[in-house]
Sequence to fold (137 residues):
Amino acid sequence: MMKEFHFNDCHVCTNPNIIHIECGHWYTADIETAEHNGKWMFGLNVKLPLSGHGFLPSYDKGGSKYYPTERNAQIVCIRECIAFISKERSEYRANPLSPYGIELSRPSPCVMRKYNELLSMLHDKMNEIRQLSLFDF
Fold:
């Protein structure tokens, strides 16, 4: 039986499928997918110590991008998460700040390790999703 997705008055899905990836309390990524009229869309929520990025899966008159399968939507979503986290990691490396906004003389090895671990976990999840799609008939 297919899951029925519910949307509120603003066309936002209130019960999306969620893949949660966490690398410590301050380093998380949620990949959210939902189906509307046979097409799949995604939303994401990335939380990092100094920044975040996110939006919910929603449909509107032309603004949303749709994908033929949930796996397609998940892969595109993970790519977007990877791009955002990579950008944030580069910015942190160039201008290191503490979680309290204090300038540091050099990037913290612990913070850089967490960024790299989260990126690695996202790459692993994307490879897992791709591998599963190879065996679909």
The longest strand covers residues 28-36. Residues 14 and 116 are 31 Å apart (CA to CA). Strands lie at 17-22, 28-36, 39-47, 52-55. The chain has a mean pLDDT of 87.
